[in-house]
TrEMBL record:
SMART domains: HTH_ARAC (SM00342), REC (SM00448). PANTHER family: HISTIDINE KINASE-RELATED, TRANSCRIPTIONAL REGULATORY PROTEIN HPTR. Residues 3-120 form the Response regulatory domain. One of its GO terms (molecular function) is DNA-binding transcription factor activity. The keyword Aminoacyl-tRNA synthetase does not apply. Keywords: Cytoplasm, DNA-binding, Phosphoprotein, Transcription, Transcription regulation, Two-component regulatory system. This is DNA-binding response regulator. It comes from Paenibacillus oryzisoli. The modification 4-aspartylphosphate is found at residue 55. It holds the Pfam family Response_reg. SUPFAM superfamilies: CheY-like (SSF52172), Homeodomain-like (SSF46689).
Amino acid sequence: MYKVLLVDDEKLSRDSIATLVQWEEHGLQLIGAAKNGFEALEWVDKEMPDIVITDIKMPVMNGLELIGKIKERRSDTVFVVLSGYDEYDYMSEAMRYGIKHYLLKPCNELQIIDVLSEIKREIANANREREFFTKLNNNFTRVLPQVKEQFLRDIALTGTYNQRDFEEFMAMFHIQAQTFQLVLVQFGESCGYLEKFALKNIAEDLFTSEKLYLSTVVEDSVLLLIQAMAFEDMATILNEVRDIYKSYYRLELFMGVSGAGGFTAIRSMYKEVQDVLRYRFYFTEGCMLTSDDVQVTSKASWQVDFNASFEAIASSVKAGDVNDVTHRLKSLLDVFEEHRMEINEVKSHCMELYMIVIRQGQLPPSSEKMFQVVTFQELDTLHATFEFLRSISIEVAKSNYQESSSIQNKMIASVIQIVDEHLGNPELSLTWIGKELLYMNVDYLGRLFSKETGVKFSQYVLERRMEQAIRLIERAGDLRVYEISRLTGFREDTPYFSKVFKKYTGFTPSEYKRNWEEGLRKPL
């Protein structure tokens, strides 16, 4: 049974969640409901909860500060953040803490249970993985490989060994070389120790002991200390390592290669490959990078008005202009690729643009759309980030276009109905309809009418009046020309009506009437 601690300064919210969930039915134990961060820390020290549900915005100690203090005490505690629609800044900060579980206030029992069930599965998986690692480590009977790994980790991460220590270890490991290079390999997605251990073994087999001296797993990466060699030779081996590994595990690899150096340079070489791989975000998956590949433009040498760019994209999304949205996002992508901004800064800009885009829809964004912003933390490349941003932007733009088209179609249908009902009204005009009936901008209404019907409004009305005049001549033969003129909206201006009628039909009204009557008298 997993222990759960609830933290919320709002008593109503705290009591509601505490009583809403049938904790024990779901394998959970609510150990306490704290009203502030200090009280929560007391519960943590006493009960060591597995899960902490905390409000993100609280006085004295907010949820983020509380999370930081709990992480210092218990690193494997899983957190669920309670937040509101207006707390994006807190949510963005929470992501930097690695928080990925959120509940949007107010929330119901089903939403709470869904999140807690997912966390239970994660904890169970993590426990199984820890058990697996324990069994695997217990099978390591030889001490030397472990010593080698620890030595490389220590020298790369801390640089604590002196020259004498180094010489002793090199003699123990039978390493005579004085010049080395470091290769740091990162994975395209999160994986377990077994996958990292497999990569290390493949690299050891392909490089052989004469070229690869030490290898180890460092956090989520694999670190290789190899013989200094020409880049082409190294690339050949590393590409083979990548291909063999991918054939088994279907995981992409990002490789950073340092320059050459001796013992005293290993620490700085490690920092070099770390810095290089910080820019893997800008490269396709499966890349191999050196410091020459990531020359970064100084911020002082360029300026980008992101606010203006974001506003233009938002306007295109709102207008439903998919082509313009795609074009503007591509331009923004080019800016990031050209200037190689720091990765977290890029993701921060992308998350800001995402929140702007989803608010351009006809309806307020759903909670699902709000929390999809977390996806940015999981994307490994700039192109994947922009593809996600593009898909969401186009989805909203298409929805807006369809809604706008539906409204426009209804509007033009109304105009056509008004024309049909007022053909005999001499005042019938686009200005009259726009100002007196639909209360719309006349110029916009005219452009919209032409776009939807393919003809100008004045031409459409003229054709409808002429067709009406023809019907009156054919079906009401006793009507005089001045009467038809009045019934079709020309008042009793018979000369002008006759002129327009002849231009439209090729005959005067009298000629058309005579021809029509003669045609009726002819025998079949």
